[in-house]
Amino acid sequence: MGGSDEAVGLNRRTDLHLARKAWHLSAGLTGIGVFVFSGLDRVGSLTVLAILLTFSISMEVFRLRIPRLNHAVHRCLGPILREEERHRVSGVPYFIAAAFLVVLLFPRSIAVLSLLYLTLGDPAASLVGILYGHRSSRFSNGKSLIGALAGGGVSFLVSFPVLAAFGFHSNQQWILALIGGMTAGIAEVLPLKLDDNFVIPVASALSLWFGAMFFGISVV
């Protein structure tokens, strides 16, 4: 059984892995869209996220304890799974757990921004890092400076339309976009054991919240 499991080829973190990036984008944007446009209040959103989190954790526990199930998951979801996730928890529960926390603890604008940084900034950092990381310095965790700059730059740029949609003034947009973009870029390369899917949105939400308080910006 172990041999057949190993026969299912999975991409590694250093591979381009476009299918995973496409899934990351579509899942993140769909989740954010539902959160923004579904009309659910905070309790409703948290209820949905709690159900999804419970399901994803249960699936991870079962697949890691039942080799036959793990093998079936690899066969079905191989295009979006990584080799490093073959015998350990995937990024999905971390993504949902981070979404639950930012929706629970922060205003809607900050929650949307922090999740958007993960949805758009993180794939951009990975793509640029894989393609051009050899041209820049690398950090202790193997990630590249150019990738972190790309992730932070994308996060900075996407901040403006979101902040404008929530009614923030131009100077407020610049302040929060700079804070959010820098935090998202730095979070990419922090030498932490936690998954990026958790670190990026939580760190970004915290920095945006404290930055708004420091500069006297009212957030909604």
Structure in words:
By secondary structure, the chain is mainly α. The protein has one domain. Helices cover 72% and strands 0% of the residues. It is built from nine helices and no strands. The protein has helices spanning 2-6, 18-37, 42-65, 67-77, 92-105, 108-132, 145-165, 170-189, 196-214. α2 (18-37) runs antiparallel to α6 and α8 (170-189) packs antiparallel against α9. The longest helix has 25 residues, at 108-132. It is globular and about 55 Å long. Residues 1-5 have low confidence and may be disordered.
Brief overview, please?
With 220 residues, the chain is mostly helical. Helices cover 72% and strands 0% of the residues. The protein has nine helices and no strands.
- Could you give the order of the helices and strands? HHHHHHHHH
Low-pLDDT windows of residues: 1-5
Helix proportion range: over 70%
Report the biggest beta sheet as strand number plus sense, adding barrel if it closes. Answer: none
What structural category do the secondary elements indicate?
mainly alpha
What is the alpha-carbon Rg in Å?
Answer: 18 Å
| Domain count | 1
How would you sum up the global shape?
globular
Number of helices: 9
Q: What proportion strand? A: under 5%
Mean pLDDT: 90
Distance between the termini: 53 Å
